[in-house]
Amino acid sequence: MSIERLRAHYGFSKMPFGKDVAPGALHRQASQQEAVARISFLVAEGAAGVVTGEVGAGKTVALRAAISALEPSRHSVVYLSNPTVGVRGLHAAIVTALGGIPRFHAAALVPQTADLLAQEVAERGKRVVLAIDEAHLCSPEQLEGIRLLMNAELDSVSPFSLVLCGQPTLRRRIRLGAFAALDQRIALRYHLQGMSATETGEYLAHHLALAGRSDTLFSDDAIALVHQVSRGLPRAVNNLAVQSLVAAYAQKKAIVDESSAQMAVAEITGE
Ligand SMILES: Nc1ncnc2c1ncn2[C@@H]1O[C@H](COP(=O)(O)OP(=O)(O)O)[C@@H](O)[C@H]1O
Ligand SMILES: [Mg+2]
């Protein structure tokens, strides 16, 4: 099976359902748009919030879209794509993002981080955004470190807005007693749902159009099956759609029909 021949067979200008969609070419599914709006609100308010969603629900895309829409001259964004760097790594990442050179000893690094955060606001007039993706992987020590940084200012105004993005276990993790102080500061919780059946159809059409096919390529029952099995989660939709195309191409079909989608489901879920 050659992807190149498949591409030619269906007249795609590039393989559809690729991972990297340009920020301007994103599909606008409601629950992701909502997540972007909530994150923007958090930043405008200087507040803290938690965005959860299952694997592949579109959290990282939402977080990146919200960040890229921020006016760069007025915001300093500290973006951690993976927090499994320890407490030291967390502080060092903040210091580095704010243009400092992380001090070696924790006893010096923590106050350095707090000072740089305060300076960014007081001297440069910038809003600082601490955005942590995969935040369900944050250790208790890191969550405590974040809380302490938020409390650094005596007047109890947080020196940064905080966006924690992660899998659904994140909510429980923060609610646990030990983090009550952080939990109280969470102004907003949003759970990113999968797309509706209609949206899944539009999403498929959107990706196909980006690859140069604006006409009907997936039959309605194929779309319905992809939606049912993926539960509208974009990454699962992508995977099923690609496998459906592969199955349809193997039989030199012009249209991806339900039996092609069925083969894709069997391929992916082992059912
Ligand atoms: N609005 C969108 N438009 C196009 N593709 C999207 C969109 N949202 C998500 N995707 C696709 O779904 C994949 C999974 O999204 P991602 O944000 O990485 O999920 P999560 O971070 O929740 O695991 C992305 O790589 C991208 O291909
Ligand atoms: Mg992600």
Which molecules other than protein and nucleic acid are bound?
Answer: adenosine-5'-diphosphate, magnesium ion
Compute the gyration radius: what is it? 22 Å
Write the H/E string, N to C.
Answer: HHEHEHHEHEHHEHHHH
Shape: elongated
The CATH architecture name of the largest domain reads 3-Layer(aba) Sandwich
**Can you give the helix content as a percent range?**
40-55%
Q: Please give the count of helices.
A: 12
Secondary structure class reads: alpha/beta
Strand content: 5-15%
The overall average pLDDT, rounded, is 93
What can be said about this structure in brief?
With 271 residues, the protein is α/β, with parallel strands linked by helices. Helices cover 51% and strands 11% of the residues.
Task: Describe the fold and architecture.
There is one protein chain. This protein is of the alpha/beta class. It folds into two domains: 91 residues, Helicase, Ruva Protein, domain 3 (Orthogonal Bundle), CATH 1.10.8; 163 residues, 3-Layer(aba) Sandwich (Rossmann fold). It is 51% helix and 11% strand. It is built from twelve helices and five strands. Strands 2-3-4-1-5 form a five-stranded parallel β-sheet, sandwiched between helices. Strand 3, helix 6 and strand 4 form a beta-alpha-beta unit. Helix 10 packs across helix 11. The radius of gyration is 22 Å and the shape is elongated. The two termini are 22 Å apart. The model has no long low-confidence stretch (mean pLDDT 93). The structure holds adenosine-5'-diphosphate and magnesium ion.
